[in-house]
Amino acid sequence: MKSELNKLFGDFLSIFFPRECGCCGCVLKYQEKFICIACDFHLPYTNYHEYSDNDTARQLWGKAPLEEACSFLFMQKDSRVERLIYQIKYNNQPFLAEYFGYQYGLKLSEVKAYQDIDFVIPVPLHSSKLRKRGYNQSTYFGRGIARAMEIPLREDILVRKKATISQTGKGRLERYENVSDIFDCQNTVLMDNVHILLVDDVLTTGATIISAALVLFESFDCRISVATLARA
Ligand SMILES: [Zn+2]
Questions:
Q1: pTM for this structure?
Q2: Ligand 1 center to 34 CA (angstroms)
Q3: For position 92, what pLDDT does the model report?
Q4: Which of 116, 168, 200, 220 could form a disulfide with 123 if both were Cys (CB 3.0 to 4.6 A apart)?
Q5: pLDDT for res 171
């Protein structure tokens, strides 16, 4: 009876304060939390965490000696996932990243290769961009993962010195050369042989995440795996 009343009250509230699905924009029903049932069913999950030899890992092979790499969702043009990423990055809905992070964290916890991860590091935004947007969506994604995996999120290690990676007129190899110009490491004393999960929102060229990984490798003794919310 109580839950019936709650549902009724929830539906009543949603008339005045409609909550929208983060993927398709439809009005959510009371029992739907962040995305609607239809989107949840149709989202293109990669299942990359289930096997090491996946396309995200292959894309990063040879550029940094990573342990594992995976992406949660495929992002195609004009798709549910593209809308979701837009909501997260540009429409002030970072909690969607945390929600998906938590779902992914639950899945990663079930895979042996990810079970010895010590902490999560989100790829940081440059302070100017952080000020403008007000939040780092990768932090929210990482927070969800960390909560599900019951490990800490560390934002005090990797620092971003440059807002963007300049790729114009540079070959693929050259792009990774001056990585220490983009990111910097701090607070790395007394850390040995830790396994880090480096997380970002979308994997495109991979240049940013590789740059971040290389700086971490340069700074201390660690193993690094990578997880992104989506891959373009
Ligand atoms: Zn939907």
A1: 0.88
A2: 9
A3: 92
A4: 200
A5: 56
